[in-house]
Amino acid sequence: MTAKLLRGRTLSFKSRPQARDDHASYVYEEDGALLIENGQISAAGAYADVMFKAPVDVEVVDHRPHLLMAGFIDPHIHFPQMQVTASYAANLLEWLNTYTFVEEQRFADAAHSARFAKLFFDELLRHGTTTAAAYCSVHKGSADAYFAEATRRNLLMVGGKVMMDRNAPEALTDTAQSSYDDTRAVIEAWHGKARNHVAITPRFAITSTPAQLEAAGALAREHPDLLIQTHLSENNAEIAYTLELYPDARDYTDVYAQHGLLTPKMLLGHAIHLSNREMEAIAEAGSVAVHCPTSNLFLGSGLFDLKRLKEHGVRTAIATDIGGGSSYSLLRTLDEAYKIQQLRGNRLPPIENYWQATRGNAEALGLEDRIGTLEPGSDADIIALDAAATPAMRIRMETIETLEEELFLLQTMGDDRSVRAVYVAGEAV
User: Fold this and answer.
1) Can you say how many angstroms the Cα of residue 142 is from the centroid of all Cα atoms in its chain?
2) Whole-Å CA distances, 214 to 14, 135, 176, 219, 237
3) Are 24 and 14 in contact (CB under 8 A)?
């Protein structure tokens, strides 16, 4: 395989920025380059230095003046919900029962799942997302279709068969035992094969009996390297119903803790309405609160309290939550996250937003040694971003003077049109 050198302005993060001017948290090269060999970044830095290390026959691809970054990572998204996006509903529970549970039943059909796996990854890549952690449907075949398509495209993807044995249509429920057996089968078939990672996926406490959460906890103990993904405290009515179903729990978070699921591998989608006790428990466990801003606004669920979560030491991530979310674009998602923090009186620097969408989300998945940065040894999942992608953006770019201003413009006005190139394991897609 011929080595490839990508030239452009490069930006990669080393740690979470602690302030707007935290230059130690990232590496930026005005004339940078990335040397790609065998699907990985083998050298990164100033163009002259990287070119000096490159083989004589290296293929040079010049992306100047665009910004080269690690591909975006989406740690909370629903594969079967492409045709649920933009469904009119008053709140989460109405939206689930009226649209989502109806749509997900269609994924019992293998051909339907295979078709939508192709469409799903097309859409992610078009928006610059090179890794996602997805909920498949309750059907094992939907997870098989998801991972088969990810394998065909050599994508690093996380996914899981949803576990759901109550409070859903009969055609969309499994049992505690069958959910355990099917998840075991998905793990054996796909986890660690190609670039695939399987996640244990109880949908949320309302749709799982205590027996099923016990089964999920057993899987977590048997496979401690696997991620666990679920939902937490998205909506006040959801919280009240959960506590009716689990009267012995101190709070919603305690439901998962009681079943051995609150671990450093757990991704807690939404995590909006949390008490101090819950934040302390999540922080102590090392679990991750995943912010889904477009979804939270669309469904009227609430405003993510990033400042309080950080004060409690809770790890965070950011995600689209398609189809409750309204955009596949992490750029649009970062924009809504900024606005939510504005409403909370918390100024969110663009540099921290982009750390979260790349290295921060990689850390949430425990995959920062593979993705999320431009460091040598990382998989070459890379995007090129254009801050002058539209006429309105070009006009604004005439007055942009700093990297921070450019990043802010990209998140405020950018979308899929700003994604000029996407590389997966070094190959243009």
Assistant:
1) 19
2) 38, 19, 8, 9, 24
3) yes
Displacement of CA 346 from its chain's centroid (Å): 23
Give per-residue burial for 27-37: e unless 16+ CB within 10 Å, then b: bebeebbbbbb
What are the pLDDT digits (tens) for 50-91? 999 999 999 999 999 999 999 999 999 999 999 999 989 888
As a dihedral over the C-alpha atoms of residue 369, residue 371, residue 374, residue 375, rounded to 10 degrees, the angle is: 10
Beta strand 157-160 pairing with 129-135: parallel
Mapping DSSP to helix (H, G, I), strand (E, B) and coil, where does residue 313 land? coil
- Contact (CB, 8 A) for 347 and 341: yes
237-258: average pLDDT: 97
pTM: 0.98
Across the chain, mean pLDDT equals 97
CA distance 264 to 221: 13
Measured CA to CA, the distance from residue 171 to residue 185 in angstroms comes to 20
Nearest C-alpha neighbor of 204 from the set 168, 178, 180, 159: 168
Asked whether the beta carbons of 157 and 143 are under 8 A apart, the reply is: no
Read off the pLDDT of residues 7-41 as tens digits, 9 standing for 90 and up.
999 999 999 999 998 999 999 999 999 999 999 99
DSSP 3-state helix, strand, coil percentages of the chain (rounded to 5)? 45, 25, 35
- Pairing mode, strands 4-13 and 26-37: antiparallel
317 Cα distance to chain centroid:
7
* Calpha distance 398→217 (Å, rounded): 55
Cα separation values, 318 from 99, 201, 244, 371, Å: 24, 18, 29, 16
